[in-house]
Specification:
The chain is an alpha/beta fold. The protein has two domains: 46 residues, RecR Domain 1 (Helicase, Ruva Protein, domain 3, Orthogonal Bundle), CATH 1.10.8.420; 117 residues, 3-Layer(aba) Sandwich (Dna Topoisomerase Vi A Subunit, Chain: A, domain 2), CATH 3.40.1360. It is built from seven helices and six strands; from the N terminus they run H-H-H-E-E-E-H-E-H-E-H-E-H. A four-stranded parallel β-sheet has the order 4-3-5-6. A hairpin with a 6-residue loop joins strand 1 and strand 2. The radius of gyration is 20 Å and the shape is elongated. It starts with a helix and ends with a helix. 26% of the residues are buried. Bound molecules: zinc ion.
């Protein structure tokens, strides 16, 4: 007995998402197929809305405002002379919740398994470094990467690619648990590690 082809196709698409295995993908596809029609339509509608989302040319965060910059990068009250490099969009969201940072961001992605930056990441960093240099350089480049070995390597690679465009390169300070991820740190911890950056 095999699943109908439409269900198999959905499961195959779902299995391509991060941290979803083939068996879980089938369970999800079965679940979606059993939803009432209006819930399926709502899901379809939400997916359709994604066509309005593009990536900010400056930081890489998704946005749907007109223009090519996100809310943060288009905000004149946020200093363009300080850039904080984060691995994931969810790290940016956690750091924004602290409400204490008034600079810009750059979402770079995690270091690939091989331990070297992907060509796309190198391009992003080179473009952002040039953008910063053209604007007279950065006062501070903050590395807000996970306190893991991979995070350390990523910090080194980002410094090599962009450090030349900044007067000072700092890292988030104490408080982040060793191996801990920024996304999961609470606001007090993140605020403390922002204040104690060095
Ligand atoms: Zn942006």
């Amino acid at each position: 007995m095999r699943l109908p082809s439409s269900l198999r196709a959905l499961a195959e698409s779902l299995a391509k998402l991060p941290s979803i295995g083939p068996r879980q993908a089938i369970r999800l596809a079965l679940h979606v197929s059993s939803l009432p029609r209006e819930k399926q339509q709502a899901l379809l509608g939400a997916l359709g809305e994604l066509s309005r989302v593009s990536r900010c040319v400056e930081c890489g965060f998704p946005h749907e405002v007109s223009g090519d910059r996100c809310e943060i990068c288009a905000d004149p009250n946020r200093s363009a002379r300080t850039v904080m490099v984060v691995e994931k969009e969810t790290d940016l969201l956690s750091l924004e919740k602290v409400g204490r940072y008034a600079g810009r961001y750059l979402v770079i992605g995690s270091l690939p398994r091989g331990g070297t930056l992907s060509p796309e990441q190198q391009q992003v960093l080179a473009r952002r470094a040039k953008m910063a240099q053209d604007a007279g350089g950065l006062d501070e480049l903050i590395l807000a990467v996970s306190a893991t070995v991979a995070g350390e390597h990523l910090a080194g690679a980002v410094t090599a690619a962009m450090g030349g465009a900044a007067r000072k390169v700092t890292k988030l300070g104490r408080g982040l648990p060793r191996g801990g991820e920024i996304e999961f740190a609470d606001e007090d911890t993140l605020g403390y590690s922002l204040d104690s950056r060095h």
